[in-house]
């Protein structure tokens, strides 16, 4: 995947977004069959770790990079992913899947902030417009206009916000490390730090019932690991190498639309007219951003 076209990179990011959007659904199903937060974290890491490293071993060794400094940076970057994962699972135990996804998918804001800080660049007016449209849609998807419908558990919202901040940092810094290590090796190293923190979490917070599990619960977690964790992150980082963290994360704003629709269909979570209007605004904002990206590509390739 070293010579991706913009179109193929976009397809990879859309596939990754689709998979990531179903993470909350799989986790909620596992909770409903008796799995606890600690149990889900434990089985996620047990199942994901060999899968990550299996993909690394199947990749071509000449693509590996063993710079000790870069490997250490990848491990440290994994702290962001660990914080995001633990916070997200806590949020999903406290609030509706759809609302928690809408908060989580504010992570492009923090990717944009980090990008602006590092580049010392001020966004242009068209980028600001796309940003405002997308986030206006996300706010509407939270249904905050209807006070009665906005009975959001703020502890859960806070966990989702922490997950969004950590996830945004993971994507921003991970994109740079992926260019040096490759997506498979980077995500495997980052997952090792998640393994460390999940072990600490289990030692501190686990109870006897956390180690009781059902095959059905493990089945849901297995689906989450394969289709909403390992494969999406590898696809996402491969696509990001071409399009960049800022552009990729804005495209991923389509995630809440998928999550809220799936939550309504499978978990009977209600969708209001306000949220539907928010869907439309997010789509409009993403389409506007994609138009800007295409225009920039044309201008860069035009003869001077």
What's the helix and strand layout?
Layout: H1 6-21, H2 23-32, H3 37-58, H4 68-92, H5 97-104, H6 107-119, H7 125-141, H8 154-181, H9 183-205, H10 215-243, H11 245-251, H12 255-266, H13 273-301
3D structure, described in words:
The protein is mostly helical and 304 residues long. Helix content is 79%, strand content 0%. It contains 13 helices and no strands. It has helices spanning 6-21, 23-32, 37-58, 68-92, 97-104, 107-119, 125-141, 154-181, 183-205, 215-243, 245-251, 255-266, 273-301. It starts with 5 loop residues before the first helix and ends with a helix.
**Strand elements, count:** 0
Radius of gyration: 19 Å
What global shape is seen?
A: globular
Strand content: under 5%
Task: Summarize it.
The protein is mostly helical.
Pick out its properties.
79% helix, mainly alpha, 304 residues, globular, disordered C terminus
């Amino acid at each position: 995947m070293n010579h991706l076209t913009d179109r193929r990179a976009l397809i990879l990011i859309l596939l990754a977004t689709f998979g990531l959007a179903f993470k909350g659904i799989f986790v909620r199903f596992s909770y409903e069959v008796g799995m606890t937060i600690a149990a889900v974290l434990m089985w996620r890491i047990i199942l994901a770790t060999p899968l990550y490293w299996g993909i690394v071993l199947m990749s071509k060794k000449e693509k590996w990079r063993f710079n000790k400094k870069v490997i250490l940076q990848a491990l440290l970057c994994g702290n962001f992913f660990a914080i995001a994962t633990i916070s997200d699972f806590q949020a999903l135990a406290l609030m509706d899947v759809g609302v928690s996804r809408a908060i989580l998918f504010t992570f492009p804001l923090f990717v944009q902030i980090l990008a602006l800080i590092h580049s010392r660049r001020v966004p242009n007016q068209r980028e600001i417009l796309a940003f405002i449209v997308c986030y206006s849609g996300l706010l509407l998807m939270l249904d905050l206009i209807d006070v009665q419908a906005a009975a959001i558990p703020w502890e859960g919202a806070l966990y989702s916000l922490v997950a969004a901040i950590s996830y945004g940092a993971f994507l921003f810094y991970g994109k740079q490390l992926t260019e040096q290590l490759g997506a498979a090796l980077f995500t495997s190293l980052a997952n090792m730090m998640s393994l460390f923190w999940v072990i600490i979490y289990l030692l501190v917070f686990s109870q006897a019932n956390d180690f009781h599990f059902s095959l059905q619960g493990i089945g849901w977690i297995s689906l989450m690991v394969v289709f909403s964790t390992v494969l999406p992150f590898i696809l996402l980082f491969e696509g990001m190498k071409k399009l960049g963290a800022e552009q990729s994360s804005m495209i991923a704003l389509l995630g809440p639309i998928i999550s809220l629709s799936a939550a309504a269909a499978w978990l009977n979570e209600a969708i209001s007219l306000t949220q539907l209007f928010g869907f439309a605004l997010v789509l409009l904002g993403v389409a506007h951003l994609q138009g800007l990206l295409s225009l920039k590509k044309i201008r860069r390739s035009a003869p001077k």
